[in-house]
Specification:
The chain has 102 residues and is an alpha+beta fold. The protein has a domain of 71 residues. Strands 1-3-4-2 form a four-stranded mixed β-sheet. The longest helix has 12 residues. It starts with 7 loop residues before the first strand and ends in a 9-residue tail after the last helix. The N terminus is likely disordered. Bound molecules: zinc ion. The site of zinc ion (ZN) has 5 residues, from strand 1 and helix 2.
Length: 102
């Protein structure tokens, strides 16, 4: 059996803004068209803390586990709109790396 490589990424609070409806940074065009199966779960910030990777000094608000299906976990508490976060995370499903290359 082939071991599936899990690509993990985390959306962080690094780009904190004062607007509750700010947009999460969007992936470049080539990563905006993921059409595979996706499971999206809205979780409390506490649950996100258990499911997503820990990054010292940063509050992780969402993360994606690439696979089949691609699993996206989004905090119900975030500085960015849920739609923009999901769009961001789908970019990771499509292969956008955690380095957020443009
Ligand atoms: Zn990201």
């Amino acid at each position: 059996m082939k071991i599936r490589k899990i690509i993990l990424s985390a959306l962080t609070g690094l780009l904190l803004t004062s607007s509750a409806l700010a947009q999460a940074p969007q992936p470049p065009e080539r990563f905006r068209h993921y059409r595979g199966p996706v499971v999206i779960k809205m979780l409390s910030q506490e649950q996100i803390g258990r499911v997503c990777p820990h990054i010292p000094g940063i509050i992780v608000r969402a993360c994606t586990y690439k696979g089949n299906p691609c699993r996206i976990y989004v905090s119900t508490t975030s500085w960015a709109s849920t739609a923009s976060i999901i769009s961001h995370e789908k970019g990771h499903c499509a292969g956008w790396s955690a380095n957020h290359e443009m």
